[in-house]
Design a protein that fits this description.
Length: 561
């Protein structure tokens, strides 16, 4: 008889999957801090992506075997097994539909992954820069493999959206530039002893960008002209599962987005009156703040200001509302490289915390930054938002599994926590200043508006009669852009970038509000179960230490804490 006592359990299967996956995807390896990944880039070709899919199928077979072994029925094993099966099944559904053959996006694509990974690589020693140079030489082959996938998509009639292509061509032109280009600027701070090698490598990488740009412009763009930018209900439902970890009732989600829109708009009107009495709309008050409100002047000054904001939040929250390990307390504020999307973002620490968690601010050419637009956003991206959750996952990965703390991330879980974190800071009294609170509400209504327009335009839903905007008509991308612009205090270029993002990442944008709802539902259920004995600090730390979960599972697990 086989020795089942040494056979792998679900968490071991999950961790073996992470190790095998990083072999196929060295970019993920760099995110995790795997040194062996530093000199390579993935194969994005159809064959390369088929290899990733085959790994998922193999892991699912091994998981089925592991679930039947003694010891697989503990809570820790059960939770990991459920996540692994759900994630791999959702990813295979997207792959088998050929979505990887038409991935063109202003934010989430192989092209963007190739560029961004260099910003996460160690750059402290000549050896670090030697690895960067070798990886730069790999850029053309990686981008050629991505081009091969898009070409296969054209052959199968699977086309990316024309608006995505136009936007990405603009990004490529900016990264290539007229001088040394983005890669040349990036390597300029490297050691002089490697200057010749780095300059050559940067030129090779920039040549890869130029080759992809020329093909997109001359071949791909004409081939996709007239193709729809929206995806329809079938594709949207598949992507919704991928981003949210559950099969949502899309029509109920649309109705929820509208209910939140009206609720938040009412609160905004109250705050706007405090700032600019008689303001016709909250956005008139926000425009007043753009001109007369509190600002931070200078790019380096705003980076320092955001760092201080996160440091202050950690000091105020640690020991009172959270219990943070010393390495979780470290987070860095960074300025995002030029040429990307307009939205701020966060990057998770490496597994050993040698690279800390980082928030990134795209300046979009600005040097003057209104405070109202920054505070709740950095509570979202940094503390107590993405950083506290993802750094805590990394901190307790040995109690979970590598998979639950890294590859198994469900986007709506994380974005939901970050939006919940903004609301938590409001509940705790950090947003009593009218400017900061109106900015928070502006961020909140943006997330509600995302639910409305993302679902609305991709599913071509009817605008309801209670809408203040075009009731009875069907959503189009043009109407979505107008509606979003009318109900946001952010600049026009931000609204333009957001619309392209939603069209290129269907169903990702709805996870913020729906994820927040899951977190709130779970907290209230736990509070009701414990009554006066409910300990919010203990609940928060337990919730942040359970790793990733899809939204349905998240509510169940949070309610039981």
């Amino acid at each position: 008889m086989p020795n089942t006592t040494s056979a792998p359990l679900p968490r071991q299967v999950a961790d073996a999957h992470v190790s095998a996956y990083t072999e196929l995807d060295p970019i993920t390896g760099t995110y995790l801090g795997v040194p062996e990944s530093a000199r390579r880039l993935p194969d994005f070709s159809p064959a390369g992506m088929d290899a990733v899919a085959e790994l998922a199928r193999t892991t699912l077979r091994r998981l089925t075997e592991a679930e039947g072994r003694p010891g697989a029925d503990t809570d820790a094993e059960r939770r990991c097994a459920r996540l692994l099966r759900e994630r791999l099944t959702a990813q295979l559904a997207v792959h088998e539909a050929g979505e990887h053959l038409r991935t063109v996006s202003n934010l989430h694509s192989p092209l963007h992954a190739v560029r961004e990974v260099f910003t996460l690589m160690p750059a402290d020693t000549p050896a670090d820069w030697s690895a960067i140079a070798e990886r730069l030489h790999a850029v053309p082959a990686a981008l050629e493999s991505y081009r091969a996938a898009l070409a296969e998509g054209l052959a199968r009639g699977l086309k990316g959206g024309p608006l995505q292509v136009t936007t990405v061509l603009g990004q490529l032109n900016e990264w290539i530039g007229t001088g040394t280009g983005w890669f040349g600027d990036f390597t300029a701070s490297g050691p002089e002893e490697l200057r010749t090698e780095l300059d050559k490598a940067a030129g090779v990488a920039t040549g890869g960008l130029a080759a992809l740009r020329d093909w997109l412009r001359d071949v791909y763009a004409p081939a996709v002209e007239g193709a729809p930018d929206v995806v329809g209900r079938e594709r949207y439902a598949r992507w919704s599962r991928y981003w949210n970890g559950t099969d949502l009732d899309l029509d109920e989600a649309y109705a929820y987005g509208w209910s939140e829109f009206h609720r938040i708009l009412g609160e905004m009107r109250v705050e706007a009156e405090r700032i600019l009495p008689g303001a016709r709309t909250p956005w008139e008050a926000l425009a007043h703040l753009d001109a007369h409100g509190t600002h931070v002047e200078g790019v380096e000054e705003v980076r320092v200001w955001l760092q201080e904001l996160m440091d202050e939040a950690i000091e105020a929250l640690d020991g009172t509302h959270f219990e943070l390990a010393e390495r979780v307390r470290r987070v860095e504020s960074r300025i995002a490289p030029p040429g990307g999307a307009a939205a701020p973002y966060y990057s998770q620490p490496s597994e050993d915390f040698s690279r800390p968690g980082r928030t990134w601010l795209p300046t979009m050419g600005r040097t003057r930054f209104p405070v109202y637009d920054l505070v709740s956003t950095w509570y979202h991206e940094g503390v107590p938002g993405h950083h506290l959750q993802l750094a805590q996952w990394t901190h307790v990965a040995d109690r979970l599994s590598r998979y639950q703390a890294t590859l198994g991330m469900v986007d709506a879980n994380c974005e939901g926590w970050a939006l919940y974190a903004e609301r938590l800071m409001d509940e705790l009294g950090f947003l009593t200043d009218p400017e900061r609170r109106l900015g928070y509400l502006d961020a909140q209504i943006m997330r509600a508006t995302r639910v409305i327009v993302d679902l609305g335009m991709h599913l071509e839903l009817e605008i309801p009669g209670h809408s203040p905007f075009h009731p009875g008509e069907r959503w189009t991308p043009e109407l979505a852009r107008e509606f979003f612009g009318m109900h946001s205090g952010r600049p026009a270029e931000f609204a333009d970038s957001e619309l392209v993002r939603y069209l290129g990442m269907p169903a990702q944008a709805i996870g913020y509000k729906l994820g927040e709802r899951a977190w709130l539902t779970g907290r209230e259920a736990a509070r009701a179960a414990h009554g006066d004995a409910f300990d919010a600090k203990a609940w928060h730390m337990a919730a942040l230490s359970q790793g990733s979960l899809g939204l349905d599972d998240l509510v169940v697990e949070l309610s039981a804490l």
